């Protein structure tokens, strides 16, 4: 029911008149530069996160007795932190854990959520009912508790964090996938495939999935931004990456004590996280516009 | 009716499954409460004394029983609504959760109200000024708002308003000097019941920072929904009619547009309440706000099984019930849907 | 950093008192054969009433205040205020003073203590102190089957193995299996606090929710995870405390602690993050106290683990640690080099001739590593995730890697730390970063607790000292040391023990000696910060 209502809201947004559509196009053009910037940021963060450590010879772990050097110090363009480590190096290396955790967690959420959603939507009836109760359960499980339990069981670190976030974010995608599959499975091409004797997994994967891939991909990118926010936040409360491995979320937490004398230790990683998360959101928006023209949220 | 009843009944297996998962997970994670309790304040004990003390505590807490027996006991207690007592002293779980839950609900509702206020105002303006710079700015702002990492926002709020400006208190829920003794646990209700209006302002002041932090993450989302819904209604005939009748723009907005746009908005809000509840559990940790989130997290760390079980169940129950109510409300409110699904 | 011994921030009155005590100062153990004399002077309000509320920031509260049941430091600080013991140590000196016991006699063989109770002491419920209260309270420590013990009670004084009985209404007799010179000091600890027998009868195992003692503050309310509220007890036998209300408020987030101190939301706390030191020293809203260094920042080495089985490896680790970096970067100067090994400067028997046991010599460390072919060996460090621990862990990791080891860190929630240390079969760790506070200022509480091979936490669960050949000798040596009268002889014996322990076993690396960083609002006067920095709470003299 709630899935239907969500869908209804998005459908309701279909252009009401030719005039509105024209204005919408104009708005989209206006928004396009922002989207392009966001794409650039996303790509830049990915490149820096994955390839930065390969090209730089800065050491993010080397401690020195020169703590709290300011921005612009010789040899340390962004200064040093409380243990005398190079902040620029830590910023470059610190992107990777966030990227890995949020990307893998999103992939996990997508595979799990979309899989369950498509199966539920396609079969309907009893299968649907039970799968949706499973989703109810996952949604009702407080995500912070889920993640803390997983981390307590597996030890703090990337694995537990990724698993926890992936599980916590799967239900949202499952609901969307189910609603879309429900809509598609009533269509002629699906009945045609069924009559043609195609096997069920084949129908779901080769017939339905390509038709609903657009909105699901867009939603997955939005999920990526949620996952990144989650990952940074949980690292911040100490459930994620273990020190001294550089990580933006943990850097914010560790720098928090020095907010007054060295605010950059908090502001740099916090801003970087913020820009990355916001960029993910705009990219998701843009993708949705391109891939799923019906919606205009 | 049948559908509504079924929806209600479906809550039970969900909660049961959740309790079971929490029960098993707490016993699966390493670290025994008996060890922590035996070590507590008794760091001088000899190894022999320590082992005896640990074993005695394990027996006292019933942790020496096989897992299935513990689970049966747990289920039996659950059926009789006995949630047990904390391992750390014998505080009743019901009491502890009962003290913490109202605080969490207050925070969630306050955040919701702030988010609605911001979201509806900006959403309506954006729709009204569609495709102008204002609209564009609001839409960009909305995206930024719900992608803000809450923790950074919370810390900045604490520093700016709590420390530098000193306008707002930064921790807790009410100053001790007020001597608040809860009747219902909801401060606003208690202020009325106990006739203590002086409670209200300090309570509001303590709520502003955490609630706003939380609300900002939701406001952008509401802006988008409201904008879409209002745009849809604006295109409808009756709005055009009303305008032709010569009603002022604000009257059209109030009487026709908002009323008709309300339904999808309310639905989405209901769905978002759950997300907000999850968010408040985390926000509590930044502001040392005495809600279920703090209770839950510290209980996991202390391996205080009964509290984790009880608090998780309470949060899930609240969450599931809100969803059920939203679903049912939707059935009641929207005649079209009733026809389709009946 | 300069080591600062002595309290710069002491109030004038306590300085005068401390001066008055000089000359009367003898060792804890020397009191064994003497009688206590009633001490009129105390840290009470002396009639100076200012009223108001004193709010102390605490680590947490489970809303259980029970001397037989440890839950959090904060809950026990409340016990410290609600109840008094037979004896008392103010921490401004390390001297045992009479408290609810006016005086005592000790039998010639040192195993029987006869306490003469103070007359006319009122409990908060109006009853008067008699031997019945003392017997009922201490039986909860000595008798594991006492019906008023809650589930999970840890009974901190159980290791005295004593029995207690009433001789008459105002006299009790404590019998020990063998002499123990630390008895009087340990009775001043929180476990030895006396509860009203009437209240024990009334509440039974629920006494922790309704604690009734004869202390300066009486229990009002407690909310788990939030606060404990106490109020001044008008009839406290040493005079009404200076403030009307005492609130122990849970504040866990470090930056919140700092901003609450500045904004006045909390009046004082010993849980101030060290990192705030540079900033708070320059803030007129607060008073920073340089309390004497009374706690050990330690790293325990688990000698049972294959990676640490050679003594050379453990010695190499000890030589590898750059303690000055830890003092500067993890403690922000609020710590000193551990020149007396495990005995901090605030305690008797501190001996700087042991400074070489904590020498920093990376070359020697590298040589030792090479000598046993331990290059590249991976060591796992476990540390609590709060306060100075994760910082020290990172410095230690760097130090170890600099001399040829590999190191990995795992930080865990403080509440989970113990169950992880005892989980010897579980996830692997060889090095444990932790701290040892002195709830009782006696070397036995440091060296005795950590070097005794029969000890549960440090010597067995953490370091495995108890499994090493020849370590049994420490039990006898430590027993001898703790029963010696204070003086050079005792210091000498403790130094010998420590040297043997460090050079022949090396299961404990001293990282630093430090103090819990205590800060109050500028308006707070007369607070006993020496006690507070040792997690003890005697705020009856404080005014706001």
UniProtKB/TrEMBL annotation, chain A:
Domain ABC transmembrane type-1: 95-284
Residue ranges the record marks as coiled coil: none
Keywords linked to the UniProt accession: Cell membrane, Membrane, Transmembrane, Transmembrane helix, Transport
PANTHER family registered for this protein in UniProt: OLIGOPEPTIDE TRANSPORT SYSTEM PERMEASE PROTEIN APPC, PEPTIDE ABC TRANSPORTER PERMEASE PROTEIN
Species whose genome carries this gene: Pseudonocardia thermophila
Keyword Membrane: yes
Regions that span the bilayer: 34-55, 98-122, 134-154, 160-177, 265-284
Cellular component terms (Gene Ontology): plasma membrane
Domain of life: Bacteria
One GO process term, biological-process aspect: transmembrane transport
Membrane topology, as annotated: Multi-pass membrane protein
Compartment list: Cell membrane
Broad class of the protein's primary localization: membrane
Listed name of the protein: Peptide/nickel transport system permease protein
Pfam families assigned: BPD_transp_1
CDD domains recorded: TM_PBP2
InterPro entries (UniProt xref): BP-dependent_transpt_permease, MetI-like, MetI-like_sf
Family: Belongs to the binding-protein-dependent transport system permease family.
From TrEMBL, chain B:
Superkingdom: Bacteria
Domain ABC transmembrane type-1: 101-330
Keyword annotations of the record: Cell membrane, Membrane, Transmembrane, Transmembrane helix, Transport
TM ranges: 107-128, 148-170, 207-226, 261-287, 307-333
Gene Ontology cellular component list: plasma membrane
A UniProt-annotated Pfam family: BPD_transp_1_N
GO biological process assignments: transmembrane transport
PROSITE patterns: ABC_TM1
Membrane topology: Multi-pass membrane protein
Subcellular location field: Cell membrane
Family: Belongs to the binding-protein-dependent transport system permease family.
PANTHER family: DIPEPTIDE TRANSPORT SYSTEM PERMEASE PROTEIN DPPB-RELATED (PTHR43163)
Protein known as: Peptide/nickel transport system permease protein
Lineage of the species this protein comes from: Bacteria, Bacillati, Actinomycetota, Actinomycetes, Pseudonocardiales
From TrEMBL, chain C:
The keyword Cell cycle belongs to this UniProt entry's keyword annotation: no
Superkingdom of origin organism: Bacteria
Family: Belongs to the bacterial solute-binding protein 5 family.
Major localization listed first in the record, in broad terms: membrane
Name of the featured protein: Peptide/nickel transport system substrate-binding protein
SUPFAM superfamilies with a match to the protein in the record: Periplasmic binding protein-like II
Pfam name, any one: SBP_bac_5
Span of the signal peptide: none
Originating species: Pseudonocardia thermophila
PROSITE patterns from the UniProt entry: SBP_BACTERIAL_5 (PS01040), TAT (PS51318)
CDD domains (alphabetical): PBP2_NikA_DppA_OppA_like
Cellular component, GO, one term: ATP-binding cassette (ABC) transporter complex
Domain spans labelled Solute-binding protein family: 95-455
GO molecular function per UniProt: peptide transmembrane transporter activity
Location of the protein in the cell: Cell membrane
GO biological process: peptide transport
Protein keywords: Signal
Bilayer disposition of the protein: Lipid-anchor
């Amino acid at each position: 029911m709630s899935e239907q209502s969500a869908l209804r809201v998005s459908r309701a947004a279909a252009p009401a008149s030719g005039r509105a559509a024209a204005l919408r196009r104009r708005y989209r053009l206006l928004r396009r530069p922002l989207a392009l910037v966001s794409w650039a940021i996303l790509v830049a963060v990915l490149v820096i996160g994955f390839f930065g450590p390969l090209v730089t010879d800065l050491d993010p772990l080397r401690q020195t007795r020169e703590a709290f050097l300011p921005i612009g110090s010789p040899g340390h363009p962004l200064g040093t932190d409380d243990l005398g480590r190079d902040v620029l190096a830590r910023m470059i290396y610190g992107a990777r854990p966030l990227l890995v955790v949020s990307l893998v967690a999103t992939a996990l959420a997508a595979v799990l959520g979309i899989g369950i959603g498509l199966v539920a939507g396609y079969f309907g009836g009893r299968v649907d009912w039970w799968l949706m109760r499973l989703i109810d359960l996952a949604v009702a499980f407080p995500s912070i508790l889920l993640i803390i339990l997983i981390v307590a069981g597996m030890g703090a670190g990337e694995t537990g964090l990724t698993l926890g976030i992936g599980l916590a974010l799967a239900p949202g995608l499952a609901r969307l996938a189910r609603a879309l599959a429900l809509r598609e499975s009533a269509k002629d091409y699906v009945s045609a495939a069924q009559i043609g004797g195609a096997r069920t997994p084949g129908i779901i994967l080769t017939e339905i999935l390509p038709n609903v891939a657009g909105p699901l991909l867009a939603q997955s990118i939005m999920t990526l931004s949620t996952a990144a926010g989650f990952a940074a936040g949980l690292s911040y409360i100490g459930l994620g990456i273990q020190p001294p491995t550089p990580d933006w979320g943990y850097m914010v937490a560790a720098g928090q004590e020095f907010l007054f004398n060295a605010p950059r230790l908090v502001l740099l990683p916090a801003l970087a996280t913020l820009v990355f998360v916001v960029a993910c959101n705009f990219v998701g928006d843009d993708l949705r516009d391109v891939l799923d023209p019906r919606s205009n949220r | 009716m049948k559908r509504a009843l079924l929806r209600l009944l479906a809550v039970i297996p969900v909660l049961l499954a959740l309790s079971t998962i929490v029960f098993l997970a707490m016993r699966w994670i390493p670290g025994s409460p008996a060890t922590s309790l035996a070590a507590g304040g008794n760091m001088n004990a000899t190894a022999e004394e320590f082992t005896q003390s640990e074993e005695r505590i394990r027996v006292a807490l019933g942790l020496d029983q096989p897992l299935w027996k513990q689970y049966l006991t747990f289920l039996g207690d659950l059926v009789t609504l006995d949630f047990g007592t904390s391992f750390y002293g014998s505080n009743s779980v019901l009491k502890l959760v009962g003290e913490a839950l109202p605080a969490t609900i207050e925070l969630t509702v306050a955040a919701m109200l702030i988010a609605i206020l911001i979201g509806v105002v900006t959403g309506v303006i954006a729709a009204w000024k569609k495709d102008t710079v204002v609209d564009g700015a609001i839409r960009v702002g909305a995206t930024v708002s719900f992608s803000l990492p809450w923790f950074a926002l919370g810390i900045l709020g604490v520093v700016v308003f709590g420390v530098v400006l000193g306008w707002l208190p930064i921790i807790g829920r009410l100053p001790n000097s007020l001597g608040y003794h809860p009747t219902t646990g909801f401060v606003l209700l208690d202020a009325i019941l106990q006739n203590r209006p002086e409670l209200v302002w300090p309570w509001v002041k303590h709520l502003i920072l955490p609630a706003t932090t939380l609300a900002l993450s939701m406001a952008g989302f509401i802006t988008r929904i409201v904008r879409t819904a209002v745009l849809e209604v604006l295109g409808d005939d009756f709005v055009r009619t009303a305008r032709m009748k010569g009603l002022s723009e604000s009257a059209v907005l109030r009487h026709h547009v908002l009323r008709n746009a309300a339904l999808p908005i309310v639905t989405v809000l209901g769905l978002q309440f759950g997300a907000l509840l999850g968010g408040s559990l985390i926000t509590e940790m930044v502001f040392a706000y005495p809600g279920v989130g703090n209770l839950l997290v510290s209980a996991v760390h202390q391996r205080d099984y009964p509290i984790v079980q009880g608090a998780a169940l309470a949060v899930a129950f609240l969450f599931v019930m809100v969803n059920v109510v939203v679903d049912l409300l939707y059935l009641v409110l929207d005649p079209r849907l009733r026809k389709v699904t009946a | 950093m300069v080591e600062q011994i002595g309290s710069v921030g002491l109030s004038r009155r306590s300085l005068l008192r401390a001066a008055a005590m000089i000359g009367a100062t003898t060792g804890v153990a020397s009191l064994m054969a003497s009688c206590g004399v009633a001490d009129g002077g105390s840290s009470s309000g002396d009639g100076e009433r200012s009223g108001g509320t004193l709010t102390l920031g605490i680590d947490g509260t489970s809303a259980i205040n029970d001397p037989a049941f440890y839950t959090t430091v904060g809950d026990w600080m409340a016990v410290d205020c609600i109840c008094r013991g037979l004896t008392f140590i103010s921490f401004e000196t390390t001297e045992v003073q009479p408290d609810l016991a006016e005086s005592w006699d000790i039998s010639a063989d040192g195993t029987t203590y006869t306490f003469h109770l103070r007359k006319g002491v009122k409990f908060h419920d109006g009853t008067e102190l008699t031997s019945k209260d003392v017997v009922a309270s201490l039986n909860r420590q000595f008798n594991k089957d006492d019906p008023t013990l809650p589930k999970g009670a840890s009974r901190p004084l159980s290791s005295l193995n004593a029995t207690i009985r009433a001789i008459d209404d105002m006299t009790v007799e404590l019998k020990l299996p063998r002499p123990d010179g630390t008895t009087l000091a340990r009775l001043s600890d929180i476990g030895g606090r006396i509860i009203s027998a009437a209240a024990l009868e009334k509440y039974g195992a629920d006494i922790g929710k309704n604690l009734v003692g004869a202390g300066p503050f009486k229990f009002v309310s407690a909310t788990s995870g939030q606060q404990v509220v106490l109020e001044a007890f008008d009839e406290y036998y040493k005079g009404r405390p200076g403030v009307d209300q005492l609130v122990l408020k849970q504040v866990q987030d470090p930056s919140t602690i700092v901003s609450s101190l500045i904004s006045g939301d909390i009046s004082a706390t010993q849980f101030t993050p060290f990192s705030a030191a540079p900033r708070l020293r320059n803030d007129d809203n607060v008073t920073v106290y340089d309390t004497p260094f009374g706690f050990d920042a330690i790293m325990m080495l688990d000698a049972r683990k294959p990676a640490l089985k050679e003594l050379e490896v453990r010695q190499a680790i000890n030589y590898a640690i750059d303690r000055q970096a830890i003092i500067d970067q993890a403690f922000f100067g609020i710590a000193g080099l551990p020149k007396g090994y495990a005995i901090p400067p605030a305690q008797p028997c501190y001996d700087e001739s042991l400074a070489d046991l904590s020498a920093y010599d990376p070359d020697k460390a590298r040589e030792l590593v090479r000598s046993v072919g331990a290059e590249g060996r991976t060591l796992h460090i476990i540390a609590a995730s709060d306060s100075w621990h994760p910082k020290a862990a990172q410095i230690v990791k760097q130090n170890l890697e600099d001399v040829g080891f590999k190191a990995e860190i795992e930080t865990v929630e403080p509440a989970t730390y113990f169950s992880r240390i005892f989980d010897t079969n579980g996830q692997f760790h060889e090095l444990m970063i932790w701290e040892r506070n002195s709830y009782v200022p006696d070397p036995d509480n440091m060296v005795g607790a950590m070097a005794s091979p029969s000890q549960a936490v440090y010597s067995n669960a953490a370091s495995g000292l108890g499994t090493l050949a020849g370590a049994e000798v420490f039990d006898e040596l430590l027993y001898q040391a703790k029963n010696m009268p204070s003086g050079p002889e005792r210091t000498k014996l403790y130094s010998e023990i420590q040297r043997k322990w460090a050079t022949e076993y090396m299961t404990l690396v001293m990282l630093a000696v430090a103090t819990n960083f205590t800060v109050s609002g500028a308006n707070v006067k007369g607070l006993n910060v020496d006690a507070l920095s040792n997690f003890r709470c005697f705020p009856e003299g404080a005014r706001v």
